[in-house]
Design brief:
This protein has 12 helices and 19 strands. By secondary structure, it is of the alpha+beta class. β1 and β2 form a beta hairpin. The relative contact order is 0.15.
Length: 343
């Protein structure tokens, strides 16, 4: 490996993209949003700058999410966005970096190829792919090289991934299009149905973060939200309690629990016995909803914990895997979805 070469890990999420630089840690945390001039196709802003423009742009500028359900939905915009982000952390490097990218365990061959091509177009020299569940396990401090089963539940913005990891690979997994966005939409529907008020997505997210819960809190939280009265069309406000939010977000939580059961039913008995000892690890923004870990533990009977930094755990794990890039081709790191492309 050249002394000036720089290795990068990218946690490619539906809502956020984290960039980890070997030897430096996480250098970028940006929303996976781009602002584009729809008439010229020109990229205007990326990340936080683009997010600030949501709902506040002229007719010719649109803010879009080029990644949907953990995979690329708009190839050109994804490549342009990654080019901008990679350029920020390699602006003084003369050599193209090697890049490790996290992908869902359910990713198809075509989707894998799209990720590889987009990252190469964005300025990478070599591209490696690894399942986000494996990266999350590594980030949580689990020794992924051992034949020992651990369950990972990663609740992202657009998807939830439930996977059993052993020997550095995914043994069993389920990926569903239920994530943080689904919880926000459930809150919007609930307030519209119960209070006849229309609120925006960001307001719903603030509610979810502020007083959202799946198990009753010891103290009832109350938060005032502003929206539009659907009867008069005028601005109005209403006070929402955490008790109401338990009901509001129960449906998407139940769908996630159902998928957890499906994965447990398909998991080999030897690994299920491991899970009862090792427990379930939760990551992603959705895992921060109050009481979610207690709900899963109560429902499955398996000890459940939220990892130390659920929003960045996968990126930290991918950063750890950068140390093993030289071994990947030799098969010393058994990554089930390892892919490599050289120019």
């Amino acid at each position: 490996m050249l002394i000036f070469e720089r290795d990068i890990a990218i946690d490619l999420g539906t809502s956020n993209i984290l960039v980890y630089v070997r030897g430096k840690g996480i250098m970028l945390r940006e929303p996976a949003i781009v602002a584009v001039d729809k008439y010229t196709g020109q990229l205007m802003k990326v990340g936080q700058d683009a997010q600030k423009m949501l709902g506040r742009t002229p007719a010719n500028i649109v803010a879009i999410h080029p990644i949907s359900a953990g995979v690329i939905s708009d190839y050109d915009m994804t490549a342009a966005m990654l080019h901008e982000l990679i350029g920020r952390v390699t602006s003084f490097s003369l050599f193209k970096p090697r890049v490790l990218v996290t992908v869902p365990s359910s990713v198809t061959g075509v989707e894998e190829r799209n990720v590889i091509d987009a990252v190469i177009e964005a300025g990478a020299r070599k591209v490696y792919l690894t399942e986000s569940a494996v990266a999350t396990a590594a980030g949580a401090g689990i020794d992924i090289s051992k034949p020992d089963g651990h369950m990972i539940i990663d609740i992202g913005g657009g998807t939830t991934e439930i996977a059993v990891v052993s020997l550095g690979g995914v043994v069993e997994c389920e990926s569903i299009k239920i994530g943080g966005d689904a919880f926000d939409e459930a809150i919007i529907r609930y307030i519209r149905r119960k209070h006849n008020i229309l609120i925006g997505k960001r307001t719903a997210e603030d509610l979810k973060i502020g007083i959202g819960c799946l198990v009753q809190r010891t103290e009832v939280g109350i938060q005032e939200v502003k929206g539009r009265d659907l009867t008069t069309g005028l601005p109005t406000s209403v006070k929402i309690s955490s008790v109401e939010l338990v009901e509001a977000i129960a449906e998407p939580a139940a769908q996630i629990l159902e998928s957890v059961h499906m994965v447990l039913e398909r998991t080999p008995p030897e690994l299920v016995s491991d899970l009862t000892e090792n427990g379930i690890y939760m990551s992603g923004g959705g895992s921060l909803i109050y009481g979610f870990d207690r709900l899963i533990q109560r429902d499955t009977g398996v000890p459940t914990v939220v990892v130390e930094d659920p929003l960045a755990c996968s990126a930290f794990g991918a950063g750890k895997l950068l140390l093993r890039l030289d071994d990947m081709q030799d098969g010393m790191v058994n990554l089930a979805r390892k892919r490599q492309l050289e120019e």
